[in-house]
Recover the amino acids of this structure.
């Protein structure tokens, strides 16, 4: 069994910047006296981008600011978590992200604001997902190197799994709150530190010779990976978006069981044992239960308590299905072209570099 020291999340290393926005944010994190110029740099970066959701520079800048509210960044003072200039920069980055997310998805027809109707609508929505299947490709065709790339890409979220959704707990009440706590309790190991799902995933990474330290591979993952996690942080950290956070988590849990079965089979096909497949096998069992709780008690119970936020729940679910599908599509596209799905570590333009 791992001891508490082995399970402790340490501040992640400062990433390498990908352009002027992320470089300016990193400079401000290391030297808050430079934060006064952030507004103009971020405004210029937004004016220059063709697609906020896929912009390497802007998504990394926001990712670094969000990390102040999680495990932190090495060399950055914890006193900066609520520094006014940095939080103003975060809000400046969040507004176009939210606008782009709303423009990127189509909401399903509104059900009645009752738990059975909301659950039925979510099951219909998640059951209609017909995009290319990363999990099936991994189970049938992936090479060992592609399986390692998959774990590297997933590590950015999975090594802090459940944390973004936990921000919603104090913002709920009654049936929805109890349901979210039940789901999160499983994610955090039911009181057993070694069974925390992120800790189990870290074991999967170690079994393939990968670094299990949080943030070790940030420089290697593309913008779509950061956008996926930034979206969850956006929903979780803003109380007004609690409905979107609930909808996102519900859709996430409702589309997890079958892919995790294929992921486990992929590593078995490649010759790995339980120390590698345990994370995925655990989710096959846990998420089969979670999907019912998430649809009926969490999302359905939330809408019955706050019917005015039904559209936000549907928005969060639609975002989960759309945006969270982009990383898989990216990997499949690159692999089909015979290329790696990982980025190079070359910095994009002026920046703060941390080799």
């Amino acid at each position: 069994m791992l001891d508490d020291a082995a399970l402790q999340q340490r501040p992640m290393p400062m990433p390498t910047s990908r352009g002027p926005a992320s470089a300016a944010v990193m400079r401000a994190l290391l030297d808050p006296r430079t934060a006064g110029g952030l507004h103009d740099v971020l405004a210029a970066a937004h004016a220059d981008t063709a697609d906020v959701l896929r912009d390497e520079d802007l998504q990394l800048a926001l990712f670094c600011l969000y990390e102040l509210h999680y495990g932190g960044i090495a060399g950055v003072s914890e006193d900066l978590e609520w520094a006014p200039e940095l939080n103003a920069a975060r809000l400046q980055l969040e507004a176009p992200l939210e606008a782009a997310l709303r423009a990127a998805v189509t909401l399903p027809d509104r059900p009645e604001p009752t738990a059975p109707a909301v659950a039925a609508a979510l099951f219909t929505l998640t059951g209609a997902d017909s995009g290319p299947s990363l999990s099936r490709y991994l189970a049938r065709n992936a090479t060992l190197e592609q399986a390692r790339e998959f774990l590297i890409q997933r590590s950015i979220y999975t090594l802090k799994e459940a944390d973004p959704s936990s921000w919603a707990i104090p913002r709920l009440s009654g049936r929805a709150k109890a349901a979210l706590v039940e789901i999160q309790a499983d994610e955090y190991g039911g009181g057993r530190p070694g069974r925390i799902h992120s800790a189990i995933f870290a074991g999967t990474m170690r079994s393939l010779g990968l670094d299990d330290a949080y943030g070790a591979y940030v420089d290697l993952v593309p913008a779509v990976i950061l956008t996926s996690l930034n979206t969850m942080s956006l929903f979780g950290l803003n109380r007004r978006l609690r409905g979107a956070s609930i909808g996102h988590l519900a859709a996430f849990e409702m589309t997890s069981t079958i892919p995790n079965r294929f992921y486990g089979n992929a590593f078995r096909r490649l010759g790995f044992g339980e120390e590698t497949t345990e994370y995925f096998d655990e989710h096959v069992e846990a998420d089969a239960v979670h999907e019912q709780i998430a649809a009926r008690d969490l999302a359905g119970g939330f809408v019955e308590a706050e019917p005015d936020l039904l559209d936000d729940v549907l928005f969060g679910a639609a975002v989960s299905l759309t945006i969270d599908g982009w990383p898989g599509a990216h990997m499949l596209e690159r692999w089909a072209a015979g290329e790696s799905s990982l980025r190079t570590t070359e910095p994009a333009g002026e920046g703060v570099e941390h080799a």
DSSP finds 17 helices and no strands in the chain.
